[in-house]
Amino acid sequence: MAEALLALGGNVGNSRAILDRAINLLCDGKTVRLTARSSDYRTPPWGFKYQPHFVNLAIAVETTLSPQELLERAQAVELRLGRDRAHEKRNGPRTADIDIIAYDDVTLNEANLTLPHPRWFERPFVLLPLAEIAGDRVIAGRRVDETAEAVDAGGIYRLP
Fold first, then answer.
1. Contacts of 72 (CB under 8 A, 6+ apart)
2. What positions carry a catalytic annotation?
3. Is this prediction's pTM over 0.90?
4. Which residues of the chain are modeled with pLDDT < 50?
5. CA–CA distance from 59 to each of 84, 85, 127 (Å)?
6. Domains of the chain
């Protein structure tokens, strides 16, 4: 089985409930098994600033799916939860966004999937939850917890 780290976020509807449902839909216990889940974090909007705050979290899974199959499953979950990639504003509001941050130590650069995620190390809304569950993990030569300490995490709060 491969280990994958994923970042989830959303800011439309009851984001905490939607993200819990996303995890349940993604992780069937057979081909994708949840091994760790971070706390939920309230984070300011990224990119398009005039939208509600996000809820973000990270999960670790063990999977028998290939990176492409895991991406397909994640996008199917997003669609089932109301995300419409074809009609949404880039970096705008969404019910659920699921990104694969790392898949074992695989390096991949395909049209629809780059691994590790090319911007994971500059996004505090990914780094703080990820550091909580995989702080000692090294991705693309960077240790997660050290990278998290180096970014500005202003406005990000762990939710109770």
1. none
2. 83, 94, 97, 99
3. yes
4. none
5. 23, 22, 12
6. 2-158 (3.30.70.560)
